[in-house]
């Protein structure tokens, strides 16, 4: 234990050093005083706490003592006494106040301290980092993002990397408007930092960063088309659209579908989805029946939601694959083929919106007689067999759908009676969920009938507006402005992957919801297993796309 008289002497000396430095007009002449402060930092606990305040305060006046000053201060940060450590941490930003060349080094030190188990110490670290960000946001952000890593400069400490990501997400992103000034310059700088980091991220991290980029003003509603193209390019890169597709690679499938949903808001705003659609058409749609059920539904939902915004040339290219899928999913009478109502709803919706843009493309595919005056009408050729087959499938779908609607309506009446008789809250909740799922099933059926109705004509009219509201999406309420849900927000009861939101951990594509809807359908149609396949897994996928760690691998 330190002698009380020695401790008092050290404290008195420190005050003397500090007072002389305060009063000196040319502080650089007081080298002995500053050296005395450095020396006193190796004595008693109270002297160390006081020295932790004085060393950074006068640091800029003694460049010749910068190294011993910093080394001594770092020793104080490693002290056993918490009070000394906290005081030393609080002083770190002062080293950079007039000497910005030290920012990267001080950020590095603070980053290592993010792992502290002491709340008060961790809080001091957060405040010190925020102080540095306010002093020099560009240099501080650059130093922080180095700890997230990239392909060229991977992070060497995964635990610290996670701490830095949490700090950026929880402390930096929420006050971007305050920190990122001048706005356009700094938003561009942090965008470049994020883009570099995206070379080596998990699925959850990618979604977090994309949500942040979308919130920047440079990518806002008034942003030029090239900015939307930039964001789509980032998403396409993450989807790895240049990779060879393997239907057994569940991770790549997850990434592709997740990225397609993430691209939707930008496609809605006019960005091209050509590269995604080309990849889907060439690699995925032909083997979509080999995908796991929940991924297959995700894919068809994504395709349905993007279809209103496809360009005519993309619509013409992908339409044959969609018609083939329709035929696979709309059985002819007594074939025993599987029938899934939600798949058919997705595909019919996609078919209508693609065909609306290139109606004469359906002549050779479905046997229609649509005249546009173009050679692609192919009116001189005989496609009557295609028309016969396609309309037969439509008729059988309508028959199955009407029978299912009848059973669902009867079931709803029974559920209403059961609700009136239910005694416990648990029983009422169960029945309420069943009613909601039955309602969704009825919406699906109504949509199917609305979309098949016009397709029996030789010259059908295709739906190209918003008259059909997909069953998994909330009905639009004109009086309430639409908004993008924040990351982490809960989904509504009949959740979907709509609105550009990424799938939550608890299964994607409306896993549980569609599973229950299909149970309501089960046994009501006559097409083999008749929707007995689960449309959603409800399975947790852990850390994003297959939990593959970071980078292109993801597994």
UniProtKB/TrEMBL annotation:
Example of a GO MF term: mRNA binding
Compositionally biased intervals (Gly residues): 525-548
Keywords assigned: Apoptosis
Gene3D superfamilies: Leucine-rich Repeat Variant
GO cellular component: nucleus
Keyword Thylakoid attributed: no
Region of interest called Disordered, as start-end residue ranges on this chain: 478-555
GO biological process terms on file: regulation of programmed cell death
Family in the record: Belongs to the API5 family.
PANTHER family in the cross-refs: APOPTOSIS INHIBITOR 5, APOPTOSIS INHIBITOR 5-RELATED
Protein's recorded name: Apoptosis inhibitor 5-like
């Amino acid at each position: 234990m330190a002698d009380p008289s020695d401790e008092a002497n050290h404290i008195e000396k420190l005050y003397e050093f500090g007072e002389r430095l305060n009063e000196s007009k040319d502080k650089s002449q007081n080298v002995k005083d500053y050296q005395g402060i450095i020396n006193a930092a190796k004595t008693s606990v109270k002297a160390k706490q006081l020295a932790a305040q004085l060393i950074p305060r006068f640091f800029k006046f003694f460049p010749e003592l910068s190294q011993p000053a910093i080394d001594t201060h770092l020793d104080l940060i490693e002290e056993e006494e918490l009070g000394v450590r906290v005081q030393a941490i609080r002083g770190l930003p002062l080293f950079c106040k007039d000497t910005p060349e030290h920012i990267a080094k001080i950020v590095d030190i603070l980053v290592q301290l993010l792992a502290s188990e002491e709340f008060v110490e961790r809080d001091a670290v957060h405040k010190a980092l925020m102080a540095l960000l306010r002093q020099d946001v560009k240099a501080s952000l650059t130093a922080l993002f180095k700890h997230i890593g990239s392909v060229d400069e991977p992070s060497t400490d995964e635990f610290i990397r996670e701490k830095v990501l949490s700090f950026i997400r929880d402390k930096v992103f929420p006050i971007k408007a305050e920190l990122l000034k001048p706005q356009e310059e700094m938003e561009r700088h942090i965008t470049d930092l994020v883009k570099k980091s995206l070379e080596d991220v998990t699925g959850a991290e990618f979604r977090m960063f994309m949500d942040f980029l979308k919130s920047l003003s440079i990518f806002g509603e008034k942003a030029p088309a090239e900015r939307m193209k930039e964001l789509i390019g980032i998403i396409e890169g993450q989807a790895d659209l240049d990779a060879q597709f393997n239907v057994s690679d569940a991770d790549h499938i997850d990434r592709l579908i997740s990225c397609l949903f993430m691209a939707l808001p930008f496609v809605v705003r006019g960005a091209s989805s050509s590269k995604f659609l080309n990849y889907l058409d060439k690699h995925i749609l032909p083997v979509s029946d080999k995908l796991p059920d929940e991924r297959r539904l995700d894919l068809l939902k994504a395709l349905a939601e993007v279809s209103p915004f496809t360009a005519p040339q993309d619509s013409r290219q992908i339409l044959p694959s969609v018609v083939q899928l329709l035929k696979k999913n709309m059985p002819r009478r007594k074939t025993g083929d599987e029938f899934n109502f939600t798949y058919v709803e997705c595909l019919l919706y996609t078919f209508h919106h693609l065909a609306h843009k290139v109606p004469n493309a359906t002549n050779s595919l479905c046997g229609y007689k649509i005249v546009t005056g173009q050679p692609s009408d192919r009116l001189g050729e005989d496609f009557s067999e295609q028309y016969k087959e396609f309309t037969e499938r439509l008729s059988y779908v309508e028959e199955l759908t009407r029978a299912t609607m009848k059973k669902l309506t009867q079931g709803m009446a029974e559920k209403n009676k059961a609700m009136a008789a239910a005694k416990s809250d648990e029983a009422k909740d169960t029945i309420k969920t069943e009613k909601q799922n039955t309602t969704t099933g009825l919406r699906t059926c109504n949509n199917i009938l609305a979309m098949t109705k016009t397709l029996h004509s030789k010259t059908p009219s295709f739906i190209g507006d918003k008259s059909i509201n997909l069953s998994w999406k909330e009905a639009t309420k004109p009086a309430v402005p639409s908004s993008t849900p924040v990351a982490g927000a809960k989904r509504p009861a009949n959740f979907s992957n709509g609105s550009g939101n990424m799938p939550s951990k608890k299964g994607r594509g409306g896993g549980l919801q569609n599973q229950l809807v299909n149970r309501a359908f089960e046994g009501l149609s006559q097409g083999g297993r008749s929707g007995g396949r689960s449309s959603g897994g409800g399975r947790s996928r852990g850390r994003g796309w297959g939990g593959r760690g970071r980078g292109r691998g993801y597994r």
